[in-house]
Automatic annotation (TrEMBL), chains A, B:
<keyword id="KW-0560">Oxidoreductase</keyword>
<feature type="active site">
    <location>
        <position position="220"/>
    </location>
</feature>
<dbReference type="InterPro" id="IPR011548">
    <property type="entry name" value="HIBADH"/>
</dbReference>
<dbReference type="InterPro" id="IPR036291">
    <property type="entry name" value="NAD(P)-bd_dom_sf"/>
</dbReference>
<dbReference type="InterPro" id="IPR002204">
    <property type="entry name" value="3-OH-isobutyrate_DH-rel_CS"/>
</dbReference>
<dbReference type="GO" id="GO:0005739">
    <property type="term" value="C:mitochondrion"/>
</dbReference>
<keyword id="KW-0520">NAD</keyword>
<protein>
    <recommendedName>
        <fullName>3-hydroxyisobutyrate dehydrogenase</fullName>
        <ecNumber>1.1.1.31</ecNumber>
    </recommendedName>
</protein>
<dbReference type="GO" id="GO:0006574">
    <property type="term" value="P:L-valine catabolic process"/>
</dbReference>
<dbReference type="Pfam" id="PF03446">
    <property type="entry name" value="NAD_binding_2"/>
</dbReference>
<comment type="similarity">
    <text>Belongs to the HIBADH-related family. 3-hydroxyisobutyrate dehydrogenase subfamily.</text>
</comment>
<dbReference type="Pfam" id="PF14833">
    <property type="entry name" value="NAD_binding_11"/>
</dbReference>
<feature type="domain" description="3-hydroxyisobutyrate dehydrogenase-like NAD-binding">
    <location>
        <begin position="215"/>
        <end position="340"/>
    </location>
</feature>
<feature type="domain" description="6-phosphogluconate dehydrogenase NADP-binding">
    <location>
        <begin position="40"/>
        <end position="211"/>
    </location>
</feature>
<dbReference type="GO" id="GO:0051287">
    <property type="term" value="F:NAD binding"/>
</dbReference>
<dbReference type="InterPro" id="IPR029154">
    <property type="entry name" value="HIBADH-like_NADP-bd"/>
</dbReference>
<keyword id="KW-0496">Mitochondrion</keyword>
Length: 347, 347
């Protein structure tokens, strides 16, 4: 976890700095009363996504305390006057709601149930609501939700309300996290979702209630598998078209006015030069890393195996992205599959 | 070819009848002077697509003569006062431009080069422009184009102009053919494309010039392979989501507001009940048959092999559609892959 967080920290510094600049003086915002019923928000996981989400919470005048295992990132927030906590448990102790934004299922499980974790191995919780925005497998979301709902709220022995966990992964990537235009896919109790909606909308532009526990996580991995398969289909089609003598720009125009139209062709085209302001036009830098896509496809493939569903394209997509990572392109945007796997030439 | 045409004929009768009703009295239209430089249009292939395209040519007041090997279909047109010809060669002899809309590469090759074919095995042609709107492999388009351009125009010995073939396959399906809203993807000489544009727009709403010879055919098979892969990705994702407990409607809403958005999710959703007026909501009747998708994927796969390009998802998609056909679903719309291959349940 340390290495992972260390790798994220450098990239996070820019976000933290830009956040400080955009909402300065932050100290003043941090001490402002939040508009929501959640007076104190705890946030765990200050990576590329999380640090930007915190910035937007602060802009929306929530009182936020943060935690990350990376000391440098924590210090950056502390220097801006944002309260920091040494452990997830300390976050839980001082918050009405806790949001986690972590790299994988095991990180989330550890932050919830580990030593000095949110639940501190015990049965009592201060925050009645825990929101996990990480992209993790639905099985882990379901397991953690059950553990959380078996806890009792501290100091409210007579209150019948149980703590609640919502799985609320996001779509939109780093830029959307920065601009506060994320979409949250939320699974869990609908009542809790409705109470959390205002809080989520301070970091995003849209929330979609997906039904019961773990349905947010399920929606996210299903979305990403469909996106990956689409990207691969568009990449194969554009590579084949170029080999047959038709330019990617022309072929993209055909797709976008026809039945091959998709986000990977009209918004995030994988061929350099076809669109401005997308990773393919800046050497596949930024965006959504291939290693993250490989991870999401692994979650989808594992889920498909668990429910005994044949998903040949999902498995094939997973293999392709694992191969891409092995070949050293794991940090490149996932649209780089066009160049590095299909060997497409530039226009 | 006879069987194939026979199978199409019954379905064509409705189109012919509706055409007669929509533009009656047709006899008057047929004898009207056409607005374009192409006074006499020959049309070969009166299947589900072709018969509807002819109706729109007639509505636009072109003088059209038609040919099909199916006598019943020919008779229906003759009864409406549309001139019919016994052979492709007779069509060529009476036309300034000939449009073909046939089921496969071999049909097109035969109509062009066979006994009593358009070229009549000779070197002289009356029409200076031949337009093939069939979906065929780029190799055949290229070969036929070369043969055509080596012919000499009849009675124009001093004219330097050579006959020209355009490959101009369409997207949009039967409904678009009926409504005149097809999109033509055109390969060949740009000058010829510009001269043909008005004619094409009488059957469609859009034309896209794709570059040199065979680029229209290439664009079409690339579009359809990307569409097939997208449909399979969306189907796997929706089937997986349902297995994990999330409804297809909710998941579709997630996709359409996120990065999995595509034509197969927002316009042609494969799950019954999610959208009105799509094949999945009428037991996968109508639309684009799985056997046609299997054929197009075979063309794409063959082209990929020829240019030595790895296209694993294309090959996998081809296998899935061939399997679907073997299982007896060849006449169902290609979105039926959701139910028949992935075994998705209704909502």
């Amino acid at each position: 976890m340390a290495n992972c967080s260390r790798a994220r920290s450098l990239l996070s510094l820019m976000a933290i700095r830009s956040g400080a600049s955009a909402s300065s003086p932050l100290r003043q915002f941090c001490s402002s009363a939040a508009l929501s019923k959640f007076g104190n928000v705890g946030f765990i996981g200050l990576g590329m996504m999380g640090s930007r989400m915190v910035n937007n919470l602060i802009k929306a005048r929530y009182r936020v305390a943060v935690h990350d295992i990376n000391y440098d990132v924590m210090k950056m927030f502390a220097d801006r006057g944002v309260p920091t906590r040494e452990t997830p448990f300390e976050i839980a102790e001082s918050s009405d709601v806790v949001i986690t934004m972590l790299p994988s299922s095991s990180h989330v499980f550890d932050v919830y149930t580990g030593k000095n974790g949110l639940l501190h191995g015990g049965n009592f919780l201060r925050p009645w609501l825990l929101i996990d925005s990480s992209t993790i497998d639905p099985q882990t979301s379901r397991k953690l939700s059950a553990i959380v709902s078996n806890c009792t709220l501290k100091g409210k022995k007579d209150d019948q309300r149980s703590p609640v966990m919502l799985d609320a992964p996001v779509s939109g990537g780093v830029l959307a996290a920065e601009c506060g235009t994320l979409t949250f896919m939320v699974g869990g109790l609908e009542e809790a979702y409705l109470e959390a909606k205002q809080l989520l909308l301070s970091m995003g532009k849209n929330t979609i209630y997906c039904g019961g526990t773990a349905n947010g996580s399920a929606a996210k991995i299903c979305n990403n598998l469909a996106m990956a398969v689409s990207m691969l289909g568009v990449s194969e089609a554009l590579a084949l078209g170029q080999s047959l003598g038709i330019t990617a720009s022309t072929l993209t125009r055909v797709f976008n006015s026809s039945s091959a139209r998709c986000w990977s062709s009209d918004t995030y085209n994988p061929v350099p030069g076809v669109m401005d302001c997308v990773p393919s036009s800046r050497n596949y830098e930024g965006g959504f890393a291939s290693k993250l896509m490989a991870k999401d496809l692994s979650l989808a493939a594992a889920s498909a195996k668990e429910v005994d569903l044949k998903c040949p394209l999902t498995f094939q997509a997973q293999e392709i992205y694992l191969e891409l990572c092995k070949e050293g392109h794991e940090a490149k945007d996932f649209s780089s599959v066009f160049r590095h796997y299909y060997g497409g030439s530039d226009e």
